[in-house]
């Protein structure tokens, strides 16, 4: 599994926010997206996920293998924790027992029968993230995944991401605060925009640190 993003341009509200972005993503790799609000982190993730079209260039066909976890948790309030995960597992064609393993991984077993509408913000966030573990797609596109999580839940998420990478998955994570998986590379979108503006004649490979 390898994706080659080349000369990618992204727009938000009719305005270009990313231009001439190129990078590779392979199995076992993670990339952190850095940059201030408005630098295009969410727009880039949505473009890679196929939720909006490229303004220019090539997103590398990542959408076919990508699951996007954005700011909304995607939780149905009237369903219990177990029913939410069971619904996702059935729709996504998860392996038998995947919903139970996802609940256990995110410490939701004791809440399995609680309606999602009764959960705290942190519990809802954990339930939304647990959906990743019932989705067979191998690329995780995570937009500020630590929002509303306490320190213990952040540690759980970091472990889950590390296990996903070790199993041959990949991840691109937009975050202001998390250090990210060991060995993760960084794309600073604000710095990239400054470099791209100074490059004449087209695309260049993004420097990943």
Description:
This protein has 209 residues and is of the alpha/beta class. It is built from 6 helices and 8 strands. The chain has a domain at 2-75 and 137-197: Rossmann fold, CATH 3.40.50. It has helices at 41-48, 81-92, 98-105, 121-130, 151-166, 189-197, and strands spanning 2-12, 15-26, 30-34, 56-58, 66-69, 139-143, 170-174, 185-188. The strands form 2 sheets. It has a 5-stranded parallel sheet with strand order 5-6-7-3-8, with helices on both faces. It has a 3-stranded antiparallel sheet with strand order 2-1-4. Strand 6 (139-143), helix 5 (151-166) and strand 7 (170-174) form a beta-alpha-beta unit. The model is unreliable at 200-204 (pLDDT under 50).
Structural class: alpha/beta
Shape: globular
Beta fraction:
15-25%
Most strands sheet: 5 strands, parallel
Which sequence of strands runs across the widest sheet? 5-6-7-3-8
Number of helices: 6
**What percentage of residues falls in helices of 4 or more residues?**
25-40%
SS elements, strand count: 8
Flag low-confidence runs.
Answer: 200-204
Radius of gyration over C-alpha positions, nearest whole angstrom: 17 Å
- Here the CATH topology of the domain at 2-75 and 137-197 equals Rossmann fold
CATH architecture of the domain at 2-75 and 137-197: 3-Layer(aba) Sandwich
Reading the helices and strands in chain order gives EEEHEEHHHEHEEH
CATH homologous superfamily of the domain at 2-75 and 137-197 - what is it?
P-loop containing nucleotide triphosphate hydrolases
Measure the end-to-end span: 22 Å
